[in-house]
From TrEMBL:
Gene3D superfamilies: Histone, subunit A. Belongs to the histone H3 family. This is Histone H3. The lineage of its organism: Eukaryota, Viridiplantae, Streptophyta, Klebsormidiophyceae, Klebsormidiales. It comes from the Eukaryota. Residues 14-107 form the Core Histone H2A/H2B/H3 domain. InterPro entries: H2A/H2B/H3, Histone-fold, Histone_H3/CENP-A. GO terms for cellular component: nucleosome. SUPFAM superfamilies: Histone-fold. Coiled coil: none annotated. GO terms for molecular function: DNA binding; protein heterodimerization activity; structural constituent of chromatin.
Length: 126
């Protein structure tokens, strides 16, 4: 009596799943940042003294205004960061973005490293 044949799970070629995810996110209109968190941040910025010098002045935004502001912030900031990190990967003769590309991009943009460094078990330092 022979053993039944072992069926291997299907494995996609490298990059196929990544391209499928890219197409999926390009088709959707989902926001990358949560609405409530972005709304709190924008209210905090609007309540700062730099934007509203008069105390007691209350600014209200329509729901559509928050959505438009969030889309604009995503398009200008996050997409620009991805493009810059991709340029660093291409400069290193790679196609895949790595954490080092993001770290280099943040270093050149902000002047400091942003990724946490692990010191010991469970201890991270920024």
């Amino acid at each position: 009596m022979t053993a039944p044949p072992v069926i291997k799970p299907h494995k996609y070629r490298p990059g196929t799943v990544a391209l499928r995810k890219i197409r999926k996110y390009q088709k959707t209109f989902e926001l990358l940042l949560k609405k409530a968190a972005f709304r709190r941040l924008s209210k905090e910025v609007m309540d700062s003294e730099k934007v509203q010098p008069k105390k007691g002045v209350v600014t209200y935004f329509a729901e559509e205004a928050y959505d438009a502001l969030q889309e604009a912030a995503k398009a200008r900031y996050l997409v620009k960061m991805c493009e810059e990190a991709n340029l660093y990967a291409i400069h290193a003769k790679r196609v895949t973005l790595m954490e080092s590309d993001w770290a280099l991009m943040l270093k050149l943009r902000h002047g400091e490293w942003r990724f946490p460094v692990k010191e010991g078990p469970g201890k991270y330092v920024v």
